[in-house]
């Protein structure tokens, strides 16, 4: 099976491309390289360009008429940046995706697996959210994901488009062979910040928000190993028609997480246990757009995909630390 992967040079995209290959499929990468590094593409079939370039998308399909599905991952993803640059986020995440979806339908390639986000969820009392839980996206980034979910649902109802929407929780870790991982120089997410503090690249790890209504006052997240997340995409692609048949609808939404909530303080403790040393920690108010958090009810992923996560938080932390020691040899910088 050939699968078009937009954003396939990115962290999750490159890991998913590898998981597709290991399952016997051929990923076709479309990426503008706005953020993802070219080295992560490796020797895969690659088109450098914009997802809104209809002529380019048409050329990809003309040269690979046996593409069965598109995994749409290309997006801007940094929450604080989205608060400062809402136009760029709505342009790239929404307007350009609209052009891609319409062109895929026009070209007779209507199957779309979409990367959405658990940042859409409103806070609920026990922090466990199902796909039907209330939504309250707190940042322009999260709202672009919600808009695209609505776009896909509406287009699926009105056109030939079919969509499986995966709501990611919090991917951490790296490719198991350490060929790709977090590539930004200073990652904004919590584990990347912890790794930098552990390596002495930052003087301390900052816990942003310590008065949340959680068991220890810090935010709660569902941290999933990126390799487990990548394998969820493979299963969804392989069972695309069956999943929608089970859903009895042309589109459906599925949580992809571990089913366990971990607070920031708990993550710090787990990190220190794996790392073997204490990490300097300080506290600060929440950042603009930060959510208290949630963890996934994963019943639907198990029932619809036959998929569950396999790795522990400690496994993911260990792989992130291993990648941090290797990444300079691949990327050329720490």
TrEMBL record:
This is UDP-glucose 4-epimerase. GO terms for biological process: galactose metabolic process. Its EC number is 5.1.3.2. Belongs to the NAD(P)-dependent epimerase/dehydratase family. Its cofactor is NAD(+). Pfam families: Epimerase (PF01370). Pathway: Carbohydrate metabolism; galactose metabolism. It catalyses: UDP-alpha-D-glucose = UDP-alpha-D-galactose. It comes from the Bacteria. Gene3D superfamilies: NAD(P)-binding Rossmann-like Domain, UDP-galactose 4-epimerase, domain 1. Residues 3-245 form the NAD-dependent epimerase/dehydratase domain. Transmembrane segments: none annotated.
């Amino acid at each position: 099976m050939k699968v078009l992967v937009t954003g396939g040079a990115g962290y999750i995209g490159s890991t998913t491309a590898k998981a597709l290959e290991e399952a016997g499929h051929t990923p076709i990468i479309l990426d503008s390289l706005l953020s993802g590094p070219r080295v992560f593409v490796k020797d895969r079939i690659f088109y450098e360009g914009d997802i809104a370039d209809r002529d380019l998308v048409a050329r990809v399909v003309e040269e690979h008429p046996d593409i069965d599905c598109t995994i749409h991952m290309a997006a801007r993803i940094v929450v604080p940046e989205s608060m400062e640059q809402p136009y760029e986020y709505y342009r790239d995440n929404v307007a350009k995706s609209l052009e891609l979806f319409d062109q895929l339908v026009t070209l007779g390639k209507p199957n779309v697996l979409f990367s959405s986000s658990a940042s859409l969820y409103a806070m609920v009392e026990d922090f466990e959210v199902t796909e039907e839980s209330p939504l309250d996206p707190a940042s322009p980034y999260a709202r672009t994901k919600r808009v695209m979910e609505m776009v896909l649902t509406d287009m699926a109802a009105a056109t030939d488009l079919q969509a499986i929407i995966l709501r990611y929780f919090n991917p951490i870790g790296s490719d198991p062979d350490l060929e790709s991982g977090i590539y930004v120089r200073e990652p904004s997410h919590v584990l990347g910040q912890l790794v930098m503090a552990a390596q002495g690249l930052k003087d301390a790890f900052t816990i942003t928000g310590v008065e949340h209504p959680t068991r220890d006052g810090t935010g709660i997240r569902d941290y999933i190993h990126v390799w487990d997340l990548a394998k969820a995409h493979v299963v969804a692609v392989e069972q695309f028609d069956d999943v929608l048949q089970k859903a009895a609808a042309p589109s459906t939404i599925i949580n992809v997480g571990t089913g366990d909530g971990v607070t920031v303080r708990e993550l710090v403790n787990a990190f220190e246990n794996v790392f073997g040393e204490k990490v300097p920690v300080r506290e600060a108010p929440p950042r603009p757009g930060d959510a208290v958090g949630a963890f996934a009810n994963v019943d639907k992923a198990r029932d619809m995909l036959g998929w569950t996560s396999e790795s522990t938080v400690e496994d993911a932390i260990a792989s992130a630390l291993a990648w941090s020691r290797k990444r300079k040899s691949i990327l050329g910088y720490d």
